[in-house]
Amino acid sequence: MAVYVQFLIDVLSLGSLYALMALGLVIVYGILKLVNFAYGELIMVAGYSLFLLGGTPLPWLVMAAIAVLMAIGAGIATEYAAFRPVRSKSVTAVLITSFAFSTLLQNAALLFISPRARTVPLPDIFSDTVVLGGATIPLRNILTIVAAAIMLAIFSFIMKKTVLGLAMRAAATKFTMARMLGIPANLVITSAFALSGLLAGVVSLFWLGRIGSVVPGIGLEPLLVAFIATVIGGMRSLQGAVVGGFLLALIVTTFNYSLPPELLKFRDAFTFSLVILILLWRPDGLIKGPATGQRT
Amino acid sequence: MLEIEGIELRYGAVKAVRDVSLRMEQGELVTLLGANGAGKSSTLKSIAGVLKPARGTIRLDGQDISGLSPEQLVRRGVAMVPETRDVFPDLTVEENLQLGAFCRRRDTRGVAASRERMFDLFPLLAERTRQPAGTLSGGQQQQLVIARAMMSDPRLLLLDEPSLGLAPVIVDRIFEMIVELRQSGVTILLVEQNATKALKISDRSYVLSLGRVAASGTSDDIAARSDLKSIYLG
């Protein structure tokens, strides 16, 4: 019993992070049909913001809020610096500029802060545990699940009930048509980047909560995870991103629990093999989403 | 109201329109005829701001609009219905209409009035407000995109091939709706393959051929000239 509870909580908490991360990637991809490779650095920006705020007497929640705001700001900055100037010219150019912006942010952290890991302040509640169904569970895993549920609810409210959310969904399927109805392209795109920053910012709090410190290259793993989750779930569908995130967490956690210790270091190889099998079976991902052809 | 002077439109190296000039007065219904590739759709796109002219000017009420973006043109009262019948498939009929009124969304009373008017004109849509637009039939989607364009309360409506691929009965209904819209005071520029019907309901027509204006005049005159038929029937 205890092991099942533990397994379930592990899958849900890891899946929550993967799903939020994937959503942030897909919301930009849906509109621009481009992967934002500087997305992982939003986690880094939030992480270093927390580290820099660590010496101040501010309550942790305020620090966390500022860190999330910094991630949103960095998301919007990505759009202005890497996407807007070259967006209409060439797809390859945007690919390069988003990589360049990612490298720029990482090197700024290397140069101005340190290549070594820096500890971020975390609230005591993150290291508490609770006993649930006989299993001892870190409280931060429960908090992760709750926070993700709240974020998903907010996100789905924005996308379904607000005009801006409708405009973003419309632009994700027919971008030019949306503009012909008077929906400003720049507003929609900047909002998508801001939302992806919000998601990455919230993820970063719990991601850092697991490892306790921030390094310049911290963004790579979450970016990779989000990318794989969206590919499994379907690049064009917001639901797909969430499904893909939880599925990837299920796969990873299952291997963590079932592989013998000597094989555990090959866990990623097993995970990716399974991902390849899923893609052979459903090349478009699990959820197809509305058909869209045009790139903008 | 609308004056186009010697525009040239190109897709990369390919010239879609070489030299087209046309004018429209307030309240007119004008048809653009021509074979496939004559440059009709490109001309409409340039008025809607989707395609920038390489040469020539487009003026709306005397002001040059050739450099404006699609979203700026909607605010100036230009609404475009593209031939690709672009409904937002995963949004409901209601949400599609709501986005049509995007630039006047704060005028809630005006938007509600437009919505009622569109439901009167297109009663089929009123029954399906909560249905995703992607599940509508072709004819219903065509009605939805016209209604959605009208939600911005435009003065100039650009209709690109509204009868394309629809059953004859529905084509008749679409043409009736165009006449009704015109009676409500909207200026309409119509691109149509269905020349006979388009000539019947419009005031004036332009016939395009290979990116140039081959003939223009009242629709009755154009319909009477048998030498033009080979041009616009393709």
Automatic annotation (TrEMBL), chain A:
Single GO MF annotation:
transmembrane transporter activity
State whether keyword Transcription applies. no
Per the record, what is one GO cellular component? plasma membrane
* GO BP annotations, alphabetical order: amino acid transport
Q: Where is this protein localized, as stated in its record?
A: Cell membrane
Q: Which UniProt keywords apply?
A: Amino-acid transport, Cell membrane, Membrane, Transmembrane, Transmembrane helix, Transport
Any single Pfam family the record assigns to this protein: BPD_transp_2
Q: Which residues cross the membrane?
A: 12-32, 37-54, 60-81, 93-113, 142-159, 180-208, 214-233, 240-258, 264-281
Membrane topology is:
Multi-pass membrane protein
The UniProt entry, under InterPro entries, shows:
ABC_transp_permease, BCAA_transport_permease
User: Which PANTHER family does the annotation name?
Assistant: AMINO ACID ABC TRANSPORTER PERMEASE PROTEIN (PTHR11795:SF445), BRANCHED-CHAIN AMINO ACID TRANSPORT SYSTEM PERMEASE PROTEIN LIVH (PTHR11795)
- Could you say which protein family the record assigns here? Belongs to the binding-protein-dependent transport system permease family. LivHM subfamily.
Q: What is this protein called?
A: Amino acid/amide ABC transporter membrane protein 1 (HAAT family)
From TrEMBL, chain B:
Q: Which GO terms describe its biological process?
A: L-amino acid transport
| Listed PANTHER family | HIGH-AFFINITY BRANCHED-CHAIN AMINO ACID TRANSPORT ATP-BINDING PROTEIN LIVF
Q: For this UniProt record, give its keywords in alphabetical order, as a comma-separated list.
A: Amino-acid transport, ATP-binding, Nucleotide-binding, Transport
> What one GO molecular function would you report for this record?
branched-chain amino acid transmembrane transporter activity
Q: Which organism is it from?
A: Pseudaminobacter salicylatoxidans
**Protein family according to the UniProt entry:** Belongs to the ABC transporter superfamily.
Q: Which InterPro entries does this one have?
A: AAA+_ATPase, ABC_transporter-like_ATP-bd, BCAA_Transport_ATP-bd_LivF, P-loop_NTPase
The record's listing under Gene3D superfamilies reads: P-loop containing nucleotide triphosphate hydrolases
Q: State the protein's name.
A: Amino acid/amide ABC transporter ATP-binding protein 2 (HAAT family)
UniProt key word Transmembrane helix:
no
Presence of the UniProt keyword ATP-binding in the record: yes
